[in-house]
Amino acid sequence: MLLRSDDDSLSVLALQVTVFPNQGVAVGVAVHHAGCDGSSSTRFMFSWASTCAGPRSSAVVVAAPPVFDRSLVSVPRDLYFGQRAEWIIHEDPPVDMVIASFTLKRDHIRRLKELISAKDGAMEGGGASFRCSTIMATYAYVWVCLIKARAYGSDRTAHFMFAADCRGRLRPPLPAAYFGNCIGLCFVEAKAGELLRENGVVSAAKAIGKAIEGFGDDPLRGAETWPETVRSIVPQQLLSVAGSPRFRVYDLDFGWGTPNKVEVTSIVRVGAMSVSESREEGGVEIGMGLRKHDMDEFGTHFIDGLDRLQ
């Protein structure tokens, strides 16, 4: 999706650097999604940081130059130019929206994956259980905690949406350094009653795994319907995701050392979650943008659930 050449209402890139005397520096970055996706914007940040730091940088070096050739992507039905962004929500968030961070440590994730695999095998009568990845376990756990926090009725349908990088899934695949938007949307839904029961995290993980499997080798299949799908489920308290642990944002180094904290502040506008690798190797850091009451309840369920994993 590109802006018209005469549409100058929004900047593609905005930067703000705030210096806290004798304390540190905060770098604020806003990137318009019409310009690129998270993978591309993160590569830009690493290139910028590496250039600033020079040989002192401990950041991962982006070896390959960016690829801008749009003809490499075969888009169905002129989707690239045909879709407009009027459906995107631009409303201000409620005044009681807050952001908080939660961490799943390496051991938490290991126990979650073991629990999901064991319970799934038992539910399938001892058959082979599906392979649960770190991101699947993270998504499933957070989704279930949020459903509990919002006290969904058992008959209500819960919705979850996340993006997946299409670069390596297209045929032929795109270079990892392709700069632009190349992500597909995965939609997951389940009855709240399935997620609220004892093995709810297993049901959530299986539903998420099924969506990933369905993404398959044709990740742009049905892309022309995505805007309408999103528009229809947003009013139903859709949980969506920003970021990825693969971005390695805590490896960024402008020459001042790696970040103490990275926040995705845009999640507060839509009540979403963000994910990144944690500063502790093997863990996942989760950002949540929720109304104050929901956040308090979410935090309680998040911590209680981890205690029961011990």
In summary, what is this structure?
The chain is α/β, with parallel strands linked by helices. It has helices at residues 38-53, 79-82, 106-123, 134-149, 192-196, 200-215, 226-233, 267-270, 292-309, and strands spanning 13-20, 24-31, 97-104, 157-165, 183-191, 239-242, 273-277, 284-291. This is Anthocyanin 5-aromatic acyltransferase.
CATH architectural name: 2-Layer Sandwich
Cα-to-Cα separation, first versus last residue? 46 Å
Strand content: 15-25%
Biggest β-sheet: count, sense, barrel? Answer: 6 strands, mixed
Name of the CATH class: Alpha Beta
Summarize the structure in words.
The protein has 310 residues and is of the alpha/beta class. It has one domain (13-309): Chloramphenicol acetyltransferase-like domain (Chloramphenicol Acetyltransferase), CATH 3.30.559.10. 34% of the residues lie in helices and 19% in strands. The protein has helices at 38-53, 79-82, 106-123, 134-149, 192-196, 200-215, 226-233, 267-270, 292-309; strands at 13-20, 24-31, 97-104, 157-165, 183-191, 239-242, 273-277, 284-291. The strands form 2 sheets. A 6-stranded mixed sheet has the order 3-8-7-6-4-5. Strands 1-2 form a two-stranded antiparallel ribbon. Helix 3 (106-123) packs across helix 4, helix 4 packs across helix 6 and helix 4 (134-149) packs across helix 9. The longest helix is centred in the middle third of the chain and has 18 residues, at 106-123. The model has no long low-confidence stretch (mean pLDDT 87).
